[in-house]
Amino acid sequence: MLRVNIMINNETGLHARPAALFAQTAQQFKSKVTISHAGNHGDAKSVLNILGLGICKGTEILVEADGVDERDALKALQNLVESNFTNTQFLVNDPGRKE
Hints:
Histidine-containing Protein, Chain: A; alpha+beta; 4-stranded antiparallel β-sheet
């Protein structure tokens, strides 16, 4: 299992569209991915779990991945957040994705 702390700097935090992008990115990997904030945690592949954590701008989250592609999963999620949710290269439906 690997883990990484990530600072949320997106203006809306992990709400609506950013939460959906986060979950969709996590879903691209086989590893189990969890997200934690303020002592609460949830499945990072579930938009509802992410929204339920109430993560706002300036919040540090802990993301953990456990499985065969755990390193790639964490890297993709960290890149997504650090790009303010513009780096969507791991999404299957991303129009800019190159195969």
